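Students often ask what a holo structure prediction actually looks like on paper. The answer is less mysterious than it sounds. You provide the chain, you provide the ligand, and the output is a string of discrete structure tokens encoding the 3D arrangement of the protein together with flavin-adenine dinucleotide.
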Amino acid sequence: MAFGLFKKKQEEKKEIPSVKAGHLNLKVKEVVKETADAISIYFEQPESGAIQYKSGQFFTLIAEINGKKERRAYSLCTSPFVDPSPAVTVKRVEGGLMSNHLNQNLKAGDSIEVLEPIGNFTTDFDPANSRHIVLFGGGSGITPLMSIAKSALAQEPNSKVSLVYANRDLNSIIFKTSLQKMEAEHADRFRVIHVLGEAPADWTGHRGFLTQEIIKTALADLPQFSSDHTEYFMCGPGPMMDIVEQALAALSIPKAQVHKESFTSDLSKKEAPAADADKIITREVTIIYDGEEHKFSVAPGETILERGLEEDIDLPFSCQSGLCTACRGKCLSGKVKMDEDEGLSEAELNEGYVLPCVSHPLTDGVVIEIG
Ligand SMILES: Cc1cc2nc3c(=O)[nH]c(=O)nc-3n(C[C@H](O)[C@H](O)[C@H](O)COP(=O)(O)OP(=O)(O)OC[C@H]3O[C@@H](n4cnc5c(N)ncnc54)[C@H](O)[C@@H]3O)c2cc1C
Ligand code: FES
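The corresponding structure tokens follow.
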């Protein structure tokens, strides 16, 4: 190789600085406008090798906004079995820092720091499976469901996939064209049932909010998709998911077959911690992370993660709302009170896992091991 070319290659490599373990610096390959208020961000695969992820998992994007590093979780909308480049789709939230920053500023060629994909809202794909995967999505909640649908159709030739997808109107349907293509390609295995809040006059599909009635009708309309084994995945606004959960409970669907991903937490719905309020006083907590032990005092009104970060300990986190499990640790001794535990499964709770981003020490001697 000519020296000039070699030097150029070296300089290109240098453009992306190395980052700490678990962090990646990814180059934006393409930004695709999906709707008026949503973009998909496709990333170039790093030179070190393709990013390993499971359908339904999420990246944490880190960006400096107004002089402060912000991080937010974004589910991968691509399939590791189908798409050469991983992508996330970001829908603007009114007044939201990161979603507006990314929609307004990000362009091809930019680099962005991300945390490696994690998340439990996933399923293993096996060509021997013969199941019906039923997806319930609302608005931006389509992202992890899109990844699951693509992977299931590609990896499980005997499985069928149905998507019940609720949106405000026709123009706000993310992936409208891709979904139409997937339906045409897999006519006997993939079906999308749209529900529109504000539908045009000639709309023949479901109108209004997603209701238990619509869910029951939609499922009954798919007898040809019936299978001995059905699994349900939902992701969307809280009230929509409440309705889906109620409808599935009314149909006596076992909870083990129902999987849920929340993008936002509704702490107002949680029980007030009246019973434990007097126990939440300033207490010393020990965190074991990355082979090091850190001791610090946590005051009422702050979480263990917040105090740890204030103490300049480089703890892992993403949503800071008890949803994503990026901060997950095991409570080895003592007890904590969690404001939210939605991200953890019952098995994880029984094994003593806690989420420091929403945890307060309830007793002395709390020791949490992270990682
Ligand atoms: C596991 C996980 C996966 C996620 N995947 C995606 C994804 O694929 N695509 C995507 O667009 N978002 C996704 N999110 C939501 C995302 O992480 C951010 O919360 C969202 O983009 C808002 O961030 P922001 O900085 O713009 O708003 P903030 O500045 O953090 O918040 C502004 C206001 O908006 C409210 N708010 C925050 N999120 C939402 C929301 N989703 N809907 C309505 N109100 C909200 C907040 O409560 C606050 O009042 C995911 C979240 C989690 C936990
Ligand atoms: S940072 Fe997401 S659960 Fe704690």
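The helical segments are 3-14, 97-105, 142-155, 176-185, 212-220, 238-250, 304-310, 346-350.
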